[in-house]
User: What shape does this take?
Amino acid sequence: MQALKGATAVVTGAGRGLGAALAICLADAGCHLVLCGRNPQALGQVAASIEARSGRQPFCVTLNLADMASVAHAVEAINAKHPQIDILINNGAMWLEAAEQGYSAEAVSGVINAAVTGTFLFTQGLLPVLRRSPRPDILTIGSISGLPNAALQGVSVPFYAAKQAQRALAEGLSQQLAGTPVRSLCVHPPYLDDISPLEPAWEAAAMRQKGERGTNRDVVETVLFALSRPRHVSLSSIVIDSDEGGLFG
Ligand SMILES: NC(=O)c1ccc[n+]([C@@H]2O[C@H](COP(=O)([O-])OP(=O)(O)OC[C@H]3O[C@@H](n4cnc5c(N)ncnc54)[C@H](OP(=O)(O)O)[C@@H]3O)[C@@H](O)[C@H]2O)c1
Assistant: This one.
């Protein structure tokens, strides 16, 4: 993809799932990758796949978004290695299953801190190197759970609150950065089937029919579209809906 060729992209939660799929496809589109996540082995495997496909070696950074010392270390490491970042994908967020018996303080603070405090401080820490780019984008992966008046649909209240706050975070950044070259974009996926661009399921996903569940591929293609729009427009909030696992699912 010409619009993204040569850009440097940071992806959080890049060791598996949607984050890994985004990283692989951004590399396929010509980006240099910075892979961030809690599990260095998982990051190493994604990096090896990217290097095999693109010939470019990603920079891997251990990052626990729920741990502010880890956030500070990761920001420092990225700033030292990359004087300019073009794209930040805030994908990493802790999932918390709804539980009738309630939640531990650790689980609740982990979910809120990863999605909100850690994501905000990580973004703030990378803003100076983003500002050096001629095409800086911050793209947050929200959720349909984060939309105004979204139905709870069985997700835990702490996760719901964290995703609502992530939407506000992306919108707040949009307002704060109005009049600067930096765009803040937010994509809200429905429930997803976790598929990888390295698997045959990726090709098959393009043939899904209405009524079937969304996949990582739907989100990746939406993100690539949003990032490659001309600079004078911002697709600041994109909702991906599906009958199965969507807003009214
Ligand atoms: N899957 C869905 O149905 C769905 C639907 C709507 C929105 N989303 C959003 O899409 C994004 C990606 O999720 P997913 O689909 O890949 O499934 P997921 O199982 O929710 O994965 C969460 C991702 O975030 C990372 N993560 C979790 N806690 C973290 C922390 N404290 N610090 C750094 N990274 C952390 C995980 O990495 P490790 O655990 O490997 O460290 C993993 O890569 C999330 O923001 C999620 O909320 C997902």
About this structure: The pocket of NAP is lined by residues 12-13, 15-19, 37-39, 42, 63-66, 91-95, 114, 141, 143, 189, 191-192 (CB under 6 Å). The helical segments are 17-28, 40-54, 68-81, 105-131, 157-176, 201-205, 216-227. The chain has seven helices and nine strands.
